[in-house]
Amino acid sequence: AVPRTPPPRSPNPSPERPRSALAAAILATTLTGRTVAIPQPRQRSLSESDSACVEQECFEPYATVAQLRMGPNWKLDGSEESHIQSLEISDNYCEDEEDMDTYLSDKEAESSCHSNGKRGEDISIRSRKAWGTMTKEKFRELKQENWTLNSACQALAQRVEETKQQMEELLLKLKSLEKENRKLKEASEMQREEEAAELLSLREQAQELVDENDALKMTVHRLNVELSRYQTKFRPLSQEEVKFSKCSFAPEVHIILFKILQIT
Which pLDDT band, with edges at 50, 70 and 90, does 211 fall under? Predict the structure, then answer.
């Protein structure tokens, strides 16, 4: 017999795969003595779950060994021994075939892993491209939004500067108005003080005039009293009194009276 060289294993350990359908059928026939139907060969494109399902399937025999034998005293002859030897040889062949299937399945797994890796790389490249496109679009949108915000910020800054200038102008006007109001208050206070002083002087003058008027009134009253006394004391003689005096008194008396009147 030729020594069997085990096929090279993949670096990635793969899960244990089921035996081939042919080897399973021959082994079942040898052990149980039942003749079973050989199913169709397994397709290479089946997945591991499909192979597990195939392993779990039960194949019904076309006929049992008891039905094929002639009787209970049936013994094995040379042909049957040769048949058993051929079954052993076929079993060895099936084991070789199983190893080859394992090798091929490992190769298929490696190729599938390689294809899956390539597919994953393609997907990652596509995702990177899509992510780059989305990032570029997002960057463009953010740039546009940033430009809009910068424009709005510049407009607001210009409005703030204009408002500051207006506030400074208003503050200058307010200061000038306060200064003018202060001057007006000082002028009004000074005018009020002058008016108060003038009013006081006018009151003093009026009081002086009142006092002078009172003095004049007293003087006039005194003069009137003196005049009335004088008139009463030195009243002139009437015609009757003159006639009486001429008749009753001597001329010397008349002359004396006239002199007294002149003296007074």
Answer: very high
pLDDT on residue 63 = 45
- Which residues sit opposite 34 in a β-bridge? 64
**Where does the pLDDT of residue 225 fall: very low under 50, low under 70, confident under 90, or very high at 90 and above?**
confident
Work out the mean pLDDT of the chain and round it to a whole number.
69
**13 touches 102 (CB < 8 A):** no
Distance CA(87)–CA(30), nearest Å, equals 8
Q: How confident is the model at residue 207, as a pLDDT?
A: 93
Measured CA to CA, the distance from residue 6 to residue 2 in angstroms comes to 12
Q: Which is nearest to 41 in space by CA: 25, 56, 27? A: 25
4-42, pLDDT tens digit by residue? 565 555 555 544 445 566 677 777 777 776 665 555 555
Radius of gyration of the chain (CA): 79
SS3 annotation, the chain: CCCCCCCCCCCCCCCCCCCCHHHHHHHHHHHHCEECCCCCCCCCCCCHHHHHHHHHCCCCCCEEHHHHCCCCCCCCCHHHHHHHHHHHHHHHHHHHHHHHHHHHHHHHHHHHHHHHHHHHHHHHHHHHHHHHHHHHHHHHHHHHHHHHHHHHHHHHHHHHHHHHHHHHHHHHHHHHHHHHHHHHHHHHHHHHHHHHHHHHHHHHHHHHHHHHHHHHHHHHHHHHHHHHHHHHHCCCCCHHHHHHHHHHCCHHHHHHHHHHHHHC
- What's the CA gap between 19 and 28, in Å, rounded? 12
